[in-house]
Amino acid sequence: MAGQNEEESNTMVVSALYEALSSGDVDTVHWLLAPAIERWFHGPHCHQQHMVQLLTGKSSNFTSTTAPSAKQMTSSFIFRPVSIFALGSLVLVEGGNRSRNVTWVHAWSVTEGIITHVREYFNTSVTATRFEKSKTLLNSGSCRHVWESKLCDSMSVPGLILVL
Fold it and tell me: How far is Cα of residue 143 from the mean position of the Cα atoms in its chain?
């Protein structure tokens, strides 16, 4: 990925992860993730295990030798990104599933081409701001809005602010 800036490279890494997850490519998933990825979740508990099952290979998306049952097809959760935004080592990905009335945001941390951390937000409005210290005033600063989730705009959900 030489010649690309950090944000383009990190976006490519995270996009490759979603492609590998959707195709059931366990080897690529393991290649892209740090051995001990840190994970944090916010949202309804019924959605807490979707991503961890995919990352560990315990999801029905990875039962490749036989066709999935109807129950597996309706119970497995598929993450299809609608938007991807990178800011340095942080890559924000938003998607949703209208039939389940669910929106999600993933905040991935990428270090030297390896995903080291994921924060998951289900049915939560997420706003990312960047804190910038003032160069003229001592002990002061300001927050600049850099990204906001859009898919949950029509839903009544809690909101969180990520300060970068």
Answer: 23
- Chain center to CA of 107: 4
- Cα–Cα distance, 82 to 95 (Å, whole number): 5
pLDDT tens string, the chain, 164 residues long: the values are: 444 699 999 999 999 999 999 888 889 999 999 999 999 999 888 888 888 888 876 665 544 333 333 333 335 688 999 999 999 999 999 999 888 888 999 999 999 999 999 999 999 889 898 887 766 666 667 778 888 888 876 777 877 787 87
Alpha carbon of residue 66 to chain centroid = 29
